[in-house]
Amino acid sequence: MLSLACELKRKLKTEKEAAIGIFQTDGKPEKLLRTLRQNVDAALTQAWQALTLPIDVALVGVGGYGRGELFPHSDVDVLILIPAKPDASLQTKLEQLVQLFWDLGLEIGHSIRTIDECLSESAADITIQTCLLEARLVTGSLELFQNLQKNYAAAINAQAFFQKKMLEMHQRHAKYEDTPYSLEPNCKESPGGLRDLQVILWVAKAAGLGNSWRELAQRGLITLAEARQLMEKERAFKDIRVRLHIHTGRREDRLVFDVQTPIAETLGFKTTSNESNIRRASEYLMQRYYWAAKVVSQLNIILLQNIQAQLFPQAENPQVINPRFNAVNGYIDIQQDDVFEATPSSMLEVFLLMSQHAELKGMTARTLRALWHARLKIDGDFRRNLNNRSLFLEIIQAPQGITHALRRMNQTGILGRYLPNFRRIIGQMQHDLFHAYTVDQHILMVVRNVRRFTMTEHAHEYPFCSQLMANFARPWLLYIAALFHDIAKGRGGDHSKLGMVDAKQFCDEHGVAAEDTDLIVFLVEHHLTMSHVAQKKDLSDPEVIQDFAKVIRNERYLTALYLLTVADIRGTSPKVWNAWKGKLLEDLYKLTFRVLGGEVSSTDKELINRQQQALATIRSAGLADDAHQTFWAKLDVAYFLRHDVSDIAWQTLSFYDQVNSHCPVVKCRPLSTGEGLQIATYVQDQPDLFARICSYFAAKNFSILEAKIHTTTHGYALDTFLITEHAFANNYPNIIPLIEHELTELLQSQQPLPAPAKTRLSRLSRTYPIIPTVDLRPDERGQYYLLSISANDRNGLLYAIAKVLIKYKVSLHTAKIMTLGERVEDVFLVDGAILNNPRNQIALETDLLEAIRI
């Protein structure tokens, strides 16, 4: 056997070198992948035959090898399929076979299973289920292999498979910051890469919709032109991946800086230069890569929507938004195929409507496709149209959905067509030590960061920034400054100075007031100034602060520049921001504020106003001036930003003398609208507390309109719920003491939690069902996880969610529970050791989906 192994190993090596040599001449990646697979097939078959294994055993290729593709340094995944548990003789032969496979010099991934074991493992693990989807007989028993295929096809649930692959894809995308535009992308795993293409074909195959792009086109899921585009991009990504393996001599799928230039040169790209700029060969390669990834991302959305519609058919029930658009099952849809051609301004209007209608989670495939094809109508006349300028400014000024709108506009090519200078930096590299994204993605990340300062659910991330933003008039000015701060990169010269010109022109053309234009232009010009002073100058030197204050002009400019600077640094890379930089910037802000004639405390105006108003209410109730201090000392900034004056005063009056109480305290009061109750609980935190409270509401059939979950600095849970029920009407004097008594007893009893009850949806929810979604991803600091859940509302839903969190020992820190008519939008801040394992994350998301499903 040793001589056979040596002979086959030498043969494989010689054949591999020859195949790579041919590839380096003809540049055909599919041919190389096929040849390498065929060579390995032949070697494994020869090894199999040498051991004279029983005729009822089969060797099956799975995963990429099963798909018929083998990259130069990829694993060879095989399944040794046996009819029953092996006896001692067969077990010995199988061990010899596996050893022989390893002796061939291959990276073998193997398993030995019966059909029943394959099916049980497949049902428990989506990765195994996916590998078996691409099973291919290499040698051995055809009958046994066909039985596996038959049983696998009967067992697979296409709907469940689709949902699990979507969860897996979303988790993978989150790992790569939901962008294909990382400066060092993974051509296999990053969004818009090879894995996204494979996911489409996997879910299509599982659903019986086709095994290739042409078959999907024949089924009407994509057009023939789109199928050709996907084949072209898939070939390009395979080409890059092959070259990465060859160049590095190992399995390497990342286009890291070190390899970008040599890979670019093998593809024929060359460095060019002119008077003002040098463009490297790697930049041509990467811009080509990003444009390809953008197309794949776009078609990925269209195809997966169409496949989802096949697997989860829903009555369309279109609801008219305006004469051009309908809402269809949570997506915006064009009323006529030629809407964008007939009314070009609707290419901007569609994004504004999505911002105005929070219930819309995206565009239909038909709308996306029409928008993509109509984008070329955005020309000089379109940009000069006053109505279009007004629409674009409305998108920027919208109270919600701004980040999503700009990202979607960029993804569909609309943003670059409307702002030609922005189009120039799409996919543009940044050659420095700290940027992790292309220029366009960095800009959109900075817009997102500024926007998050306005959102209370993110107040825990950067509390000082959230305080400042709460008192900053017209925050949309900062979004425009963020959009233009790096727009002139790559032109040669000072991009801050060049960007000022672009920003000024935009403001003048869009009718921005002169005062606001001055601020935007100032921010673009000086967006690097504050970080430079904070990190490179001596802040203890009064002259440094005085000089900086002269540049800044006034308190409003200082606050705006501080917010933009923090957002900018955070948007360079997850690894760049740290507490030291944050402290330097905050110190510079406060020192400069004093010089400008303000008071540092006035930067906390919103916070202090709330506290002072709450204190006035507390004192009017007869409480001593300092009675609140012990209780308030246990509350952080986020608490005061999340609660209004009335809530702060009421909770202080309720709990000020119970700060370290060993017994639960429950207080209720009618809502000011007279249509429900507000319930506040104060108790030492415990793992199942949230679920226990929700179990009470579910048992009483109460509807939860809103919940605010807060943990004090000394470990007490301060949770507030808005609930309603028809029986409340005119019966508050009896209902309130009953709830306070029963809920207190429940929290003291620690009795086992009941199983969540399955309840019926309302008639409206049954007519317009919402496809439930679960999204789990790390928060900005990597300290906690943000868990977002969307579903149809029903009694007991929050309790069902809480039970799943207990099962996985997930701790709840804060929650924002919102009921919007028949739809719930819940965001939880959670943590737990189990979340550090990606498989556990998928399992948690899967169980949550099951819990919230109708």
SSE blueprint and pairings:
Blueprint: H1 2-26, H2 29-50, E1 58-61, H3 63-67, E2 76-81, H4 88-103, E3 108-113, H5 115-124, H6 126-133, E4 136-140, H7 142-155, H8 158-175, H9 194-206, H10 213-218, H11 224-248, H12 257-266, E5 272-273, E6 278-279, H13 281-311, E7 319-320, E8 325-328, E9 331-334, H14 339-342, H15 346-356, E10 362-363, H16 365-374, H17 380-384, H18 386-397, H19 402-411, H20 414-418, H21 420-423, H22 439-452, H23 463-470, H24 476-484, H25 495-509, H26 514-525, H27 529-536, H28 542-552, H29 555-570, H30 579-595, H31 605-620, H32 629-632, H33 637-642, H34 645-655, E11 665-670, E12 677-684, H35 689-699, E13 703-711, E14 716-724, H36 732-749, H37 763-767, E15 773-778, E16 785-792, H38 797-807, E17 811-820, E18 823-831, H39 838-852
Parallel strand pairs: 2-3, 9-10
Antiparallel strand pairs: 1-2, 1-4, 5-6, 7-8, 8-9, 11-12, 12-14, 13-14, 13-17, 15-16, 16-18, 17-18
Helix pairs in contact: 1-2, 5-6, 5-7, 8-9, 8-39, 9-13, 11-12, 11-13, 12-13, 13-16, 15-18, 15-19, 19-22, 22-24, 22-29, 24-26, 25-26, 27-30, 28-30, 29-30, 31-34, 35-38, 38-39
